[in-house]
Every structure is written in structure tokens, then in C-alpha cells.
């Protein structure tokens, strides 16, 4: 299959994996920057009309994976695909972030829980009618969902 | 960067790109199946508690890309990254689908707008507190958002 090719880089204040918010919900108000490489900038036209964007990026500091993991917000081992752990067979990260400005290939974003220097793969506009199902059940997360925003990552991401 | 490696396959009734729903919203009730390869099945534990999952997959029939595209629901050329067009520098597809059952590595899913035989890269549980921002603006999509569910794809996906 095709190799991934970065279209830009994500910059943030997170220089190390430990201490990072585990989800955008824990990164509310945290600012960051996306720099899209020159050759892709024409693709940014019209993006500034959107308040939120979906970013896919490459977990460049993630290595290997386990099929069962104990999530940050839990004490039970869970199936990897029932968690949001970054160590995966294809180490691709997904974040929905707030978009503030787009200027000469540089996107100012908020609610960023992404490591500084992360290679960007993909930008897509967020649209609730496509991306926000209703009547949702969230399994083991139900019990811990109210406590997530304050949690921070630790060694389990490495 | 790392090469992508499929963890399974998506099966659906869509054998050709033309005639496919352009988004899950246009695929409401359309059923499909995910088969996760043997060596990854242990990662499916606990997934059945979730009603919706995020799938990333490889657009194996997509070739090349243009930085400006005329979206299905529009008549103006838009920046590629302000659209949800599948022809991209990294041809990765993202769908949020309804999960009905998980049994021996086989996921029965609904609201599927994915081509039959598509290589699966990634399964993540959908959780509104991480994935559903509020107070959203959707740029050029605002005007056309009410009409999307009936649209079908055409030659522009090829």
C-alpha cells in the first residue's frame, strides 16, 4: 500500500509525550499552529469558513502496539480498537480542532493535544451532519466520561 | 514514513465508485460488514459497547489529486482541504458508522458509504465528548447542507 507523505507540520507547546492532554476535550483553549507545505497551499482556499477541522496526523513518536490496553481513564484492560490509544497497527492520530485563522499556509488552531513537530497527513472540514451521529452509546467510557477532561497522559503513550 | 498496513476489509453492496452515497448521511440504513484479520481480533474486546465507530480506510481506487475541486453539492471550485473529496495527497477515508454487532472478528455496520473490498486501517470508538464540537460554522457547506443526503457520487471520485 501507499506510503504516507506529510502535507505539513503541527506545532504546539507539547515537546514531550508525558503531560499531554489525552484528548482535545482536555486541551480546551490550548493553541497551536499548522504549517502546510508550499505545494499544498492552494488546497486551503475556502477553509477559513469553517470553525472546526478534522486533522489526521502521523504518530511519529509512537512505536509498536498491544491489542489490549488499560486506558488512561480506566483500570481494566480493554481491546485496543475500543480505546483511543495512539499505539496502533497504523499509528494515525485524529483530532477535531477549532480553526481560528488561515493565512499564507499557516493555520492558527485551538484545542490542540498534538505533539510539537507532528507530521500532518490530512485536513477535512468538520460538519455535524456528517460527523455527529445522534443516539450514541459509549460502552466502558460511559462511567468515566465526566472525568476525562482533567486527565493527562503518561508512559502508556510511549 | 511508515507504510500503511490493512487490519481488515470492508464489505458493502457498492461495487463501483459511481452511484455511491457521498457521505454516511446519504447512506442511512445501508448495511455493510467489516472483517478484521485474525491477528488483530483480540483488539475488538469491549467494542460492542459502542453504538458508533470511526473507521479509517485506504481509498484503494483513488488516484492522484487536484488542489481545487468542485464538490458534489456545489458549483464553485473549492480548496481541496475545505472539501471531503477522496482524491487526496494521502488517500485516507474517514467514516463514522453505526455498529450493530461484533462476532468473531466480523462487525455488522450500518450507514456505510464505503466501496466493497476497501482496506481497513483503523477502528476507534466514537465519543461525542471528544468528537462533537459545539457552536460550529461550516462555510460554503451552510448553503447546501440541507440537500446533501440525496446526492450520489459520479466521475469526480475516480
Task: Write up this protein.
The structure is a homodimer of 158-residue chains. With 158 residues, the first copy, chain A, is mostly beta strands. Chain A has helices spanning 128-131, 141-144; strands at 8-11, 31-36, 52-58, 68-69, 78-79, 92-103, 106-110, 118-125. The first copy, chain A, contains 2 helices and 8 strands, in the order ββββββββαα. In chain A, the strands form 2 sheets. In chain A, strands 1-2-7-6-3-8 form a 6-stranded antiparallel beta barrel. A two-stranded antiparallel ribbon of chain A has the order 4-5. In chain A, β6 and β7 form a beta hairpin. The longest helix of chain A has 4 residues, at 128-131. The radius of gyration of chain A is 16 Å and the shape is globular. The two termini of chain A are 26 Å apart. Mean pLDDT of chain A is 86; it is low at 154-158. Chains A and B meet through β3, β5, β6, β8 and α1 of A and β3, β5, β6, β8 and α1 of B.
- Total strands of chain A: the figure is 8
* Strand ordering within the main sheet of chain A: 1-2-7-6-3-8
Q: What would the average pLDDT of chain A be, to the nearest integer?
A: 86
> How many whole angstroms does the radius of gyration of chain A measure?
16 Å
H and E string of chain A: EEEEEEEEHH
Biggest interface and residues each? A-B, 70 and 70 residues
Oligomer: homodimer
Helical residues, percent of chain A: under 10%
- Beta-sheet strand percentage of chain A? 25-35%
Cα end-to-end separation of chain A: 26 Å
For the biggest sheet of chain A, the summary is: 6 strands, antiparallel, barrel
Report the structural category of chain A: mainly beta
**Spans of at least 5 consecutive residues with low confidence of chain A:** 154-158
Number of helices of chain A: 2
Amino acid at each position: 500500500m501507499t506510503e504516507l507523505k506529510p502535507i505539513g507540520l503541527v506545532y504546539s507547546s507539547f515537546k514531550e509525550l508525558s503531560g499531554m492532554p489525552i484528548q482535545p476535550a482536555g486541551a480546551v483553549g490550548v493553541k497551536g499552529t499548522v504549517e502546510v507545505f508550499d505545494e499544498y497551499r492552494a488546497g486551503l482556499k475556502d477553509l477559513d469558513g469553517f470553525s472546526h477541522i478534522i486533522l489526521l496526523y502521523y504518530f511519529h513518536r509512537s512505536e509498536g502496539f498491544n491489542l489490549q490496553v488499560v486506558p488512561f481513564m480506566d483500570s481494566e484492560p480493554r481491546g485496543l480498537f475500543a480505546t483511543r490509544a495512539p499505539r496502533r497497527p497504523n499509528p494515525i492520530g485524529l483530532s477535531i480542532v477549532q480553526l481560528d485563522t488561515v493565512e499564507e499556509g499557516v493555520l492558527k488552531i485551538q484545542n490542540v493535544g498534538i505533539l510539537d513537530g507532528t507530521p500532518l497527513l490530512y485536513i477535512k472540514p468538520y460538519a455535524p451532519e456528517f460527523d455527529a451521529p445522534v443516539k450514541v452509546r459509549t460502552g466502558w467510557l460511559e462511567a468515566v466520561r465526566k472525568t476525562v477532561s482533567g486527565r493527562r497522559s503518561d508512559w502508556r503513550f510511549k
